[in-house]
């Protein structure tokens, strides 16, 4: 390290900082911009004073391990801020915390005891074993899925935390990023992302991309503290573009140097943002709707269970006090009471829809796997279904709509314009012109982009404009690395905002002439040219008429396409010219030429039009979003002209149409009009952030498509207001500055390749390929998830209504439930677990994108669904009532000869037919429930698009037949003959025929049918509902889970401990 540090007067008294908060204040962006932070550093003793207070040295760094440990204890370590993932046993215990599962386990125990008392140990355990099997299925699917999901994204969060850096600790040493401590002298170079906050103490030509933190795409020049001190002495006031402060999460574009580390871990700007993102998630729209549906189903089931128990108790009292069959305080009475209780519990087991959250979990888990294949990596399962209702997408421009890389899309060379792919057709351009242009680009640049050999993908490091030109020359076969470290470079005058051009002088080895390459702002370079390269590489005189033609038809034409124009030119200094006469050393001669004279009288080679290109499928994706009823809004830090041009190109704004007042608006104007955010209260009285002037906001939001010059606060304000209006909002972004809005939104999308670590942490879904069009995939699967849940509810409501009606009827009239406990639990598995697998894994149809998104206020059970439910229920109740009371009058239902004398009731065949018909009608009804389309009457539409559905139904039928034929003493049934089996199949087929006929009832007659009220359950009341107490509080509902609250409390405690 060279000794380039500022000198401090040893006798001068300086301030001392007393806590970490004072160091944090140095990195507040506004304080950096207005110079407050720099003045504070001066008062603290400058770079020397700060290093001394941090027990470090500007040359030696921290030179002892003991001091490293002391600083780590005093200022904290650089561990990433993240939640500790739950262990598998914790997730399993969480599942067993579900009251529904506890009831199932109690029922299993009671069933086992009763079975052993009645039938002995040999067969008495079967009922309990069936219940334990149901518990095992629910726990294994739910806990296992959550465990794998958490482990997967733990690795994702840690991906960027495994790097190595070089620090000065007596000498240069390499350590892990996690081992950095406050006071370290950290070495950095081109392309590095700063892992900590600090102040530059040495460096040259440092340029930083702060867009991940500030949203501004301009390069920010950084100066070491000593150079800043010299500027202070000259009364310079430009602190924003020349500051020594380096912020975590930003990237070094150019230069190299050393920084004094001042903030690590959660105390850095990046770390503080991560802590803010560690907050509870609100309930999803579907969860709130399902809570209302489940509440009503649960209430009905509980009521029927109570009435059934009362009816059975009434029969018991009649037997005891009227018929005097047995005494009240006898073992027989106790057994009947326990059996009545078992029937009531079994009805609750069937009625309370524990299969509803299971169906959601299976649908989401299935969708997550498929979405990953389509470039959507889902972090938050619930975000999948939310996308089904998303009606607003607020998208960042750079890195989301555009590729975040500069690219040459237009090229004027040899007096002709080439656009896009034409540029790479070398046969149309002479080799001489390609050669001199490419050599000019390679020599006359300082950017260092890298190219992946496997993917041919470029990583742009350094000036993005130069990177675009270097990629162009690479396409023509010229590698810039072959020209950089070359002793032929005689002199280089870097680009400056004043000169707006860069010049490089080289020694031409062919004829020992000096060649001057110049590139820069097109108007300036054009004015210095007197020749241009025309067809076949010949040089032609450039007169005023031709200059005007190039200015209007090339430069201004490129600019109107939102292209940055760069002119490339050259000239040769001939050996015999007067300029070098008497000079033997060409290098010495070139350095003596005045900067203003060195690049006059140039020959114009080419003019490049450079832009940050729109992603290939963005325009089509936005058209699809519009067709699907989704409004796309672009929120960018670019100026309003560029933003408007990009929006027109990608289809956010319509061409050839007058714009409304607020269709394109700047962030400051938007913020001033709506008044920003204020503290308010929601309906439950909780304090939240709300938009101050919602009336103006609503007017703006109806028109606004583009917000330019937007700050992160503006984006957060927009998302807050849209959600406040009742919209379901998705936000896309790649920078750290996008993170608060990503977290606030209903669904946050981050870019997998160009996205910052903080943005990925905040997002719900990561777009692996950084493609905006992958959002269409999320929309498609989101809407499909909603449809799958509707199909499942349509099926489950039918089974519930029929099972509850028949159980109560049988208990009142026959003094027993038509289905015993084991049969009822088998039905429960069919309508919950099996139906979840069959109906929740339906693949999406492209037609789902042709309709409007579901609104928060839409009923989850539509009138058309009620038509299907009521029709199927009426048919099944009629058939089952016939079997229960009339069937023996028409067919032989006598007990088989081999069962006579065993412990079977006299009507066992009739009850077996009832059981068989009931199950087969549910199988055929599941086929009908696959159709949600209002106009599709054919139940076999899309017959083969879901093999898993048919596998599940086949397994159900096979198991059902085996239970009937061979499970007699376990399931309490009798085997059936062929005619009886075919009769049950006929009843099932009849259900499909009846459902087709029922669909001919005009739809308007179904509008008033509403079996259940769908009240959206508020967040605070979700854990107080009946069904919440009878089922698991899912890990998807993080807003109410105790584990989430505990984690958040631990995070806050850790933060306060470190401070």
Automatic annotation (TrEMBL):
Keywords: ATP-binding, Calcium, Calcium transport, Ion transport, Magnesium, Membrane, Metal-binding, Nucleotide-binding, Sodium, Sodium transport, Translocase, Transmembrane, Transmembrane helix, Transport
A GO cellular component entry from the record: endomembrane system
A Pfam family per the record: Cation_ATPase_N
Record region (Disordered): 1035-1059
GO molecular function, one term: P-type calcium transporter activity
EC top class, as a word: translocase
Keyword Ribosomal protein: no
Taxonomic superkingdom: Eukaryota
Residue ranges of every copy of the Cation-transporting P-type ATPase N-terminal domain listed in the record: 46-116
UniProt-listed InterPro entries: ATPase_P-typ_cation-transptr_C (IPR006068), ATPase_P-typ_cation-transptr_N (IPR004014), ATPase_P-typ_P_site (IPR018303), ATPase_P-type_domA (IPR059000), P-type_ATPase_IIB (IPR006408), P_typ_ATPase (IPR001757), P_typ_ATPase_HD_dom (IPR044492)
Cellular localization per UniProt: Endomembrane system; Membrane
Basic and acidic residues bias locations: 1044-1059
Reaction equation(s) it catalyzes: Ca(2+)(in) + ATP + H2O = Ca(2+)(out) + ADP + phosphate + H(+); Na(+)(in) + ATP + H2O = Na(+)(out) + ADP + phosphate + H(+)
EC number of this enzyme: 7.2.2.10
Function field: Catalyzes the hydrolysis of ATP coupled with the transport of calcium.
Annotated PANTHER family: CALCIUM-TRANSPORTING ATPASE, CATION TRANSPORTING ATPASE
Protein name: Calcium-transporting ATPase
